[in-house]
Amino acid sequence: MQQIWLSLLSALSLRLVLPGGAEEGLEFPNFDGKDRVLDISERNYKKALKRYDLLCLFYHEPMPANKGLQKRFQMTELVLELTAQVLENKDIAFGMVDSQKDAKVAKKLGLEEVGSLYVFKDDRVIEFDGELSADTLVEFLLDVLEDPVEIINSAMELRAFERMEEDIRLIGYFKGEDSYYKAFQEASERFQPYIKFFATFDKSVAKHLSLKMNAVNFYEPFMEEPAVLPGRPLSEMDIVEFVTQHRRATLRKLRAENMFETWEDDMDGIHIVAFAEEEDPDGYEFLEILKDVARDNTNNPELSIVWIDPDDFPLLTTYWEKTFKLDLFRPQIGVVNVTDADSVWLDMSDDEDLPTAEELEDWIEDVLSGRVNTEDDDEFADDHDNDHLVPEDEEEGDQDPDEEDDE
Ligand SMILES: *[C@@H]1O[C@H](CO)[C@@H](O)[C@H](O)[C@H]1NC(C)=O
């Protein structure tokens, strides 16, 4: 009997996956039950390090006794198994390192943060600081497998390069592979895959970018003009230092592949966060205003705005709406305290008008000076000093009963 039910059930779920039944070409991978993730120990870790292009290790606490937590643990393991299965024909090994049982191995490999994923490539370790889902991890590992520098040879590749406005990018012009390009390449390895490195050996590409021989340009996300790295030719250290100093962009997009790294890089305990759906007309327009503000303030080291497109994080949307008491169908900008997720948001309830760039800049100035902060309303629930954009005549009645409802 159970057999029948099982086969009925699997027929049903097949139906869900493949409506119509017969078509092929859209088959999502299902875990096939074969164990591919290694149990790393003193005996096998050296061999695994040597043998594969990449070794991807999950450093975890010992298996918990609690049933619910065990399930969570198994789900993580399943993400790794599925990733290993999907990438089976790549030269990547996966393993689990137990923080107690394998403490010695962890120490030798330099694993520090329990719950983190470390990727070993050649003699480098790259920490994965993104969402632990098979989609994100597969994309990340494919990026890490590639050469850290992409060579641009044609006008078409150049156009693609110019369209990548969300990424931090560097591009250098060199004589050929056997030149100062080597230092550039060495530097790129330290930032792969988070910062994109490009090079060209082509005179007309270089000319289009106004690049002199052995010069390197640095493109901050959403900026129109690149910065030119000082000095020529550049050593590996020159490049590494410049990138390290400039990698926190004035406007940075939150991405699944490094979301935790971005969030941990707060500004004195807070983030200025903007929610905007790029596909939505209001969201798009708000984003354009935000980019203008970022371009005007690109030299202010105090300012970094984290842009979150809710479309990229469907699993987090309801959590954010609840935590920040927001409607994420509309663009929003606010200040979030990363210690307790307390937040204040700019009042943009007026349907017609988004704030202008000037109004947004005034508000940001208030945030940076501390006039707008997450703490004031904790004690004075009636404090309306911050409602800049509410016209005078509307200020009396409490517009937004939800807003003060903090306790
Ligand atoms: C963030 O919240 C914590 C805990 O409530 C508080 O101690 C801290 O001062 C806040 N930080 C800022 C910058 O408001």
TrEMBL record:
Residues 392-407 have a biased composition (Acidic residues). Calsequestrin is a high-capacity, moderate affinity, calcium-binding protein and thus acts as an internal calcium store in muscle. Calcium ions are bound by clusters of acidic residues at the protein surface, especially at the interface between subunits. Can bind around 60 Ca(2+) ions. Regulates the release of lumenal Ca(2+) via the calcium release channel RYR2; this plays an important role in triggering muscle contraction. Plays a role in excitation-contraction coupling in the heart and in regulating the rate of heart beats. Residues 1-22 form the signal peptide. It comes from Oryzias latipes. Keywords: Calcium, Glycoprotein, Muscle protein, Sarcoplasmic reticulum, Signal. Belongs to the calsequestrin family. One of its GO terms (cellular component) is sarcoplasmic reticulum lumen. This is Calsequestrin. The keyword Glycoprotein applies. Residues 368-407 are annotated as: Disordered. GO terms for molecular function: calcium ion binding. It is found in: Sarcoplasmic reticulum lumen. PANTHER family: CALSEQUESTRIN, CALSEQUESTRIN-2. One of its GO terms (biological process) is regulation of cardiac muscle contraction by regulation of the release of sequestered calcium ion. Pfam families: Calsequestrin. The gene is LOC101163627. The keyword Signal applies.
